[in-house]
Amino acid sequence: MESYTEQDIKYLQLLSQSFPTIATASTEIINLQAILNLPKGTEHFLADIHGEHEAFRHILKNASGNIRRKVNDLFGNTLRESEQRELCTLIYYPDEKLELVKAAEPDINDWYHITIHYLVAICRLVSSKYTRSKVRKSLPSDFSYIIQELLHERTDDANKAAYVNGIIDTIISTGRADDFIIAISNVIQRLSIDLLHILGDIYDRGSGAHIILDTLSAYHSWDIQWGNHDVLWMGAQAGNRACICNVIRLSLRYANLTTLEDGYGINLVPLATFAMDTYKDDPCKEFGPKVSGQQHIDRKTHDLIALMHKAIAILQFKEEGRIYAKHPEWGMQNRMLFNAIDYAKGTISIDGEEYKLLSNDFPTINPSDPYTLTPEEESLMQKLEHSFRVSEKLHKHIRLILQHGCMFSIINNNLLFHASIPLNSDGTLKEVEIAPGRKYKGKELLYNIGMLIRSAFQDDTSAAERDYATDYFLYLWCGPDSPLFDKSKMATFERYFIAEKSTHKEEKGYYFMLRDNADIVDSILDAFNVDGPNRHIINGHVPVHVSNGENPIKADGKLMVIDGGFSSAYHKETGIAGYTLVYHSRGFQLVQHEPFTSAADAIQKCLDIRSTTYIIEMSQRRMLVADTDIGAELKKQIADLKRLLYAYRHGIIKENARQ
Q1: Which of 507, 543, 537 minimizes the C-alpha distance to 522?
Q2: Is 235 in contact with 449 (CB distance < 8 Å)?
Q3: What percent of the chain shows pLDDT beyond 70?
Q4: Which residue stretches of 331-439 are H helix?
Q5: Beta-carbon count within 10 A of 632 CB
Q6: Fewest 10 Å CB contacts: which of 234, 304, 549, 632?
Q7: What CA–CA distance (Å, rounded) separates 192 from 582?
Q8: pTM value?
Q9: Per-residue pLDDT averaged across 58-87, rounded?
Q10: What is the C-alpha separation between 216 and 46, in angstroms, rounded?
Q11: How sure is the predictor about 574, in pLDDT bands with cuts at 50, 70 and 90?
Q12: For residues 532-561, b (16+ Cβ closer than 10 Å) or e, as one string?
C-alpha cells in the first residue's frame, strides 16, 4: 500500500475540494491526458520594437506571415493571388476593409456568403491544435455558439450542408454579417499566436510606444524581458532625473514628441521656454534632430527642437554627474566630462589626449562647480519630474511592464533576455556588484537586478533602498557591467561635442565578443539550468547588419539574435526592418521583414509586410503539449490526481458526492 505523510494528506484534502469524487478526478485525468497529445501552441518572439506601432500591430495581425501561409495552404489551388491578399487583408483589418468592400461590391450578400465560408475554414484550421474548451474561451460572447457550430460542422457532409448554409444565410439576413466577420477575423488572429514574447525595448525612436502598450494591455497572453530603453522609462517614471533627461533627449533627437506629449501628457512647454531664453543665440548645429524619410518638419520646428535638445542634453550630463558622484562604487566618475573641459581654450582632455570641442557655449555651467544646476534649471527639472510622476497613463503602462516582465525567462528550454550576460575574458560568468556588499553573477545577477527594479515601486521598501534602486536605473542604462548595456561607455557627450570618431567608440563587453562560441553559450545555459538537447538563447538589443553579411543565428544554432532593426532609424544600417521568430509544433522559423509602409496601404492596396522565412531548426516529430513546460506541469497534476484516486479507493480520503 502506498504511504502518505501528514502533509500529503493535507494537500490531497485540498485537491479533493476541486475533485470531490472518483468520477470527477478520473474525468480530469482523461482531459489532461488528452491535452498532452495536442500539438504545441505557437510562440512568437519579437525584440526592439522601438515605438514602431503600425509595423508591430501588423505583425501581430498577420502572425509573422503565418496567416498568409495558412490561407495559401487552404486555397492555393482555388483562389488567385490577388483574392488571397484580399482575404488576408480582411482578416487583419476587418472593420476598415469591410467599408471598402461594401462601397465596391455589386452583390454584397453573395460576397458575404462566400467570404464567411472562407473565414470559417481558416478559423477551423488555426483552432485545430487547441481543445474545444480553449477555443470556446477565445470566442466573443455574441457569436460563441454560432462559431462553435460552424467550426464543428462541415459542408462536405451532405446531411449538414443545408444546416451550415442556413446559419450563414441567417447571419446575413439579420444584418449581422459585418459583426460576424469582424468577430471571426479577430478569433483567427488570436488563435494564430498562443504566446507572445517581447525581448525588450518597446520604447524610444518611434512615435507609438504608448499605442503598443495599449495593444498589449488587451492581448491574451504575453511576457516581456525588460530592455535598456524600457528600464530607462521605468527610471523616469520612478523619478530618476537623469533618466527623465535621457528620455526627453532621445525623443528630441528623433523628432518624436508624440509618445511624450500625446501619449503621456508630459508638458514640454517649460523646456521650450527655458531653451529659447538660454540658447537663443546658439545655432545648436550639433543638436539638429534625426529626421527619417517619412517625417517632415518645418525649419522653425527644427530649430526649436535643436534648442530644446541641447538644453536637455546639458541637464542630462549634470544630473548623471551628480548620481555618479553620489555612487563612487560604480566607478563611473570618468564619465563626469564637464570636469575635463578647459572652458577658456574650448578643449577637453580624455585618456590623456586633448580635443577641440565642436561647441564651447555652456551658459549654465560654472567651470568651478559644473554639476550644480542654476535656479532656472532646478525649477525646470522639478516641473519635468512632476510631469512624469503624475502621468496616469505612464504609471499604468509601467505597472503593466512590471506585471508581465522580468530580466529573463526560461520557457520551453529557451533562455530569453534582452542584451547580455556579463562575462570575463575567458567566458566565465562575471561577478557584478549591484549594491554595496551584494555581488552576483549569471542567473542570480539577473534575478536580483529584477528584484531591485521592483523595489523602486514598492511602498513597503525602505526610503534608502527605494532611493538607491531609483538611482540604479541610470547604471542599468549605461553602466559598463549592466546586462542591459555591457559596453565600456555610452559616448553620448563625445558624439555631440567631439569630431574625432575614435572618441565615439564604445567597446562591447565579452558576451558580444564570445557569443558565437557554442561552448560559451552552452556554459551560460548550464549556469541558468536550461535543460534539453534543443536549448537556445534568444535575445535582441544589437541590430543584426544583414547588409554586411551578418548572420542572426550564432553558436551553431544555439543562439538567435532577433533584433534586425524594427525602428525606421536602423533600416539603412541593417538593410531590413526586423526579425521575428516563430516556434511552432514543427520547430523554429526565423522571419525576416522588409519595411512596412503603413496600415492605410495595407488596407487600401492589400500590401502585406514582405517577409522571408528561414527554417532554423525542425523537429524529427511534431512537438506536443507534453513536450513543453505546460506539459510538465500537467503531468504533475495527473500524478497528483492519480494519488487522489488511490486515496479515495483505499479509504484514506472520503469522497464527497454532495459537493
Answers
A1: 537
A2: no
A3: 93
A4: 375-390, 392-404
A5: 13
A6: 549
A7: 11
A8: 0.91
A9: 89
A10: 13
A11: very low
A12: eeebbbbbbbbbbebeeeeebbbbeebbbb
- 611 touches 599 (CB < 8 A): no
Phi, psi values for residue 612, rounded to 5°: -120, 125
Q: In sequence order, which residues have a C-beta less than 8 Å from that of residue 186 and are 6 or more positions away?
A: 94, 140
Looking at residue 66, what is its pLDDT? 86
Rg of the Cα atoms in the chain: 28
What phi and psi values does residue 536 have, to the nearest 5 degrees?
-145, 160
Distance separating alpha carbons of residues 515 and 420, to the nearest angstrom:
9
CA gap 512, 509 in Å, rounded: 6
CB atoms within 10 A of CB 30: 11
Which residue from 519, 439, 515 is spatially nearest to 481, judged by alpha carbons? Answer: 439
Q: What is the pLDDT of residue 64?
A: 82
- Cα separation, 492 vs 172, in Å, equals 61
Distance of alpha carbon 587 from alpha carbon 383, whole angstroms: 52
Cα 587 from chain centroid (whole Å): 22
Which set of grid coordinates corresponds to residue 497?
561635442
Contact yes or no for 8/16 (Cβ under 8 A): no
- Which amino acid is present at 385? E
Do 605 and 89 form a contact (C-beta atoms < 8 A)? no
Which of helix, strand or coil describes residue 109? helix
pLDDT for the residue 131 = 87
Do residues 233 and 203 lie in contact, with contact meaning Cβ atoms separated by under 8 Å? yes
Which residues, other chains included, contact 159 with Cβ-Cβ below 8 Å and sequence gap of 6+? none
Q: Which of 635, 610, 537, 567 is nearest to 197 (CA)?
A: 537
Q: Is 618 left (phi over 0), alpha (psi -120 to 50) or beta?
A: beta
H-run or E-run covering 466: helix 463-478
Q: How many H helices and E strands in the chain? A: 26, 17
Burial string for 338-352 (b: 16+ CB within 10 Å, else e) reads bebbebeeeebebee
- Alpha carbons 139 and 432: distance in angstroms, whole number: 48
CA–CA distance, 358 with 288 (Å, rounded to integer): 14
Residue 438 has pLDDT above 90, yes or no: yes
Model confidence at 564: pLDDT above 60 = no
Instruction: Please say whether the beta carbons of 617 and 587 come within 8 A.
Output: yes
pLDDT at residue 591 in the model: 82
What value does the mean pLDDT take over residues 269-285?
95
Strand segments (E) across 255-356:
341-342, 347-350, 353-356
Residue 384's pLDDT is 98
The conformational region for residue 117 under phi > 0 = left, psi -120 to 50 = alpha, else beta, is alpha
For residue 89, which of 594, 612, 601, 611 has the smallest C-alpha distance?
601
Pick from 175, 219, 168: nearest CA to 195: 219
Identity of the amino acid at 357: L
Pull the grid cell for residue 177: 454579417
Coil, helix or strand for 96? helix
